[in-house]
Every structure is written in C-alpha cells, then in structure tokens.
Amino acid sequence: MTYLTLSIDGMSGDFGPKVIVPAIIQSLKLNPKFIVFLIGDCNIINSLINKEDYHLLKRLKLIQSNTVLSSDISLSEAIFNSKGSSMRIALELVRDGKAQACVSAGNTAILLGLSKLLIKPLKGIHRPALATILPAIIGNIIILDLGANIISDTKMLVQFAIMGSIMAETVLNISYPRVALLNVGNEEKKGLANIRNASKILKNLSNINYIGYIEGNDIFAKKTDVVVCDGFVGNITLKTIEGISQIFFTFIKNSKSLMPYEFNFLESLTRKKIISNFSCFNTDQYNGAYLLGLNKPVIKSHGSANQKAFAIAIKYAAKSILFKIPEKISNKIYKANIPYLG
Predict the structure, then answer these.
(1) What superfamily would CATH give domain 1-124+293-324?
(2) What number of CA atoms fall less than 13 Å from residue 156's CA on the CB side?
(3) I want to staple 210 with a disulfide (CB 3.0 to 4.6 A). Which of 128, 202, 232, 274 is the partner?
(4) What per-residue confidence (pLDDT) applies to 94?
C-alpha cells in the first residue's frame, strides 16, 4: 500500500488541538492510506486520543513542539522565534522529505514567510499565491490570490493565472479551463495598470484559455473556471462570501414561523429542504487554501475552522500530493518558456 504522509501543525488556529485532533482521527478512519505527523503539545494531544483504537494510532506520529507562533507578532519576529514552533516543525518535515504535504491553521503571512524560507518557491515563480475552490451555479470555480500578496504586479497576476489554470485542470478535471481577471468592468480600458498589462500578456499565451475580464457579480455564474486577482481584492471577496453565507444559513435556521401551528411540521421540512439544497454554499465544505507556487504542497486552513472544515483541509492536502500540483506547475512554466516568468 502506498501511503500519503502529512505533517499537521496541531497548535495553531483559534481552537488548536480541540478541533485539529478530532479532524485528524476522522481522516485516519476514512482513509487507511494516511500517515500523519502531528506536531504540538503531546500531553494535550494524548489526552484527546487516549480512547482511540491502537491500530489507528499506529498511523499517527506525535512530535513535541515548544512554542506556538502567535498571530499578533510581526512576520520578522515570528520567523526569528520560529525554531521549535509547531508550524515550523511541520514545514521542516516536508522540507526534509519525511512528509509530503503540510497543513496549518496559523497566521497566513507567517505561514507564507516560513514556507518561502523552508520549502522555497518553484523556479521562476515570483510569489506563491493562495487559491481555493468555491461553488458556482454549476460545478466549482477556483479563485486566487486570497491574501498571500496584498499588492500584485503584472508578472504576479500572469503567474497566478498559469497556476490557477493548472489547478483547475488537475483538481477540477477541466480540460483547457477558462481564466479571467477580476476587474471593475469588461472594457479594455477599465481597471488598474497592472490588470490591463496582465490582460495584454495573457491574450498572447497559447497555453492559457484567457477569456478577458470578469466582474464581481459574475464570479459564481460559471462564466469562467478560474478567477484571478490580487490578494487584497481576493481576501475581501472571500470574507464577503463567507459572511453572506453565514447570514443566509442563520436566517433560514432561526426564521420565525409565519404559518399556523398545524403547519409547523410542513414548514420545518421546507426549511430543511432549503438548507439541503444550498448546502454546497456552506463555507465549511471549502475550507483550505492551496499555497500554489512552492516546491512542496502547503495547505492553509481557516483559523476558525471546525472539525468538519479542518478535515476538508486535510483532504485537500492529500489531493495536492496525488495530483502532483507543484510538479505540474513547474513543468508548464518550463515548457511555456516565457522570459518574464523568471
């Protein structure tokens, strides 16, 4: 049996081991091919797994960490004090070839900084980008960057488009996926200079199915398969989507009955049906962003992820190994032989 070996930062995020450990146990039960290195406070972790099956725990390897990197400190301070932290050890296991992919719910900037330091960007990639899968009217879309790069120049946007296209081909199984730049209008003269310049370059790339600009109201209309933007716009877009989704489901669940008492059962069934039909828009099902452009797979989980959501991030890490996303990005950039990617 060929195993998939993951290293998981067990201490980061809003809830730490209380959410991460049950998610790992759930994943180990569902996939007998998983081997997990779990980095964190072994005393806390052992208290959470002491009743689990012995044979299952043989695939869970605990590694003691000394510290947790706080989200409140600066990037430079975090990197300087990262030795012995759960996040750094998890990344070092991937760097050293002991694990094939890393999952962390830690601070995005710190995870990106340490990943660039330890895992290193692929040759020719200027800056890695955060990419995730989101639901659309039909199927799914990929959107990047989600916050790894607040400011993105023309070169970076072009690279994001290439990486997003490869991710759509492999993860979503879309042949020659459509790629669009997120902009304030469809006209050629609309938008900032970096977006307009990236558009001119993408039009001349034969290996990218670039379709032009897309506006925010069409993101989920399935007019494209990949949406490309800078991290500032992408992060706000993602957070807005998450907020609207939470409001919608909360409203449906908590809405007061407008029907007579004898029809309450029927209304309850209707409410459940609505929730079921729109369950694909539950953000828990899409937790986990791929840090594209690195030599090895790194997955960023939402800091507030619950058990179900963190298990999705683990699933994404397994997919990134199976689909060999870093290798495919590297090969496509090399074959494209585009000088401005260097």
Answers:
(1) Isopropylmalate Dehydrogenase (3.40.718.10)
(2) 19
(3) 202
(4) 97
